[in-house]
Design goal:
The structure is a single chain. By secondary structure, this protein is of the alpha+beta class. The chain has a single domain, classed as Alpha-Beta Plaits (2-Layer Sandwich), CATH 3.30.70.
Length: 127
């Protein structure tokens, strides 16, 4: 139990640091996937997609994998018609292809995405 306060003291004093969610440096491909559920607003289906996305972190070359629900907006420029947004970061085209072909991704696509999702739109861009 004495370790926890000591650890917190070190963390607060700046002797050690933890970087959570810091974007990688360099040219990175952003693979953005927007999903419209067959049952719009279904929280259970949305959570299944979020959990599947978290499993993508195990795929070699994936720098980050995040997913979440749409934020409703009154602004005309914002498309808030989708249910779930997914963001995958990979270092290059080769790793994007490997991610897309990886068995973890293929299984999630077949078992979760295709059964639950009516429409998918993908945007890929590089910094």
């Amino acid at each position: 139990m004495r370790f926890v306060p000591f650890f917190l003291l070190l963390l607060c004093s700046g002797c050690i640091s933890i970087e959570i969610g810091k974007p990688p440096k360099g040219k990175v491909i952003h693979h953005v996937v927007l999903c419209w559920l067959k049952e719009p607003g279904n929280a259970e289906h949305r959570q299944q997609i979020v959990e599947a996305t978290e499993s993508f972190r195990k795929i070699p070359g994936v720098l980050a994998a995040r997913a979440g629900q749409v934020i409703p907006s009154e602004r005309a420029i914002v498309d808030d018609s989708f249910d779930v947004g997914i963001l995958i970061l990979v270092p290059d085209d080769k790793r994007l292809t490997e991610y897309l072909e990886h068995p973890i991704h293929q299984k999630a696509k077949e078992k979760i995405l295709l059964p639950l999702v009516e429409k998918i739109v993908v945007y890929d861009f590089q910094e």
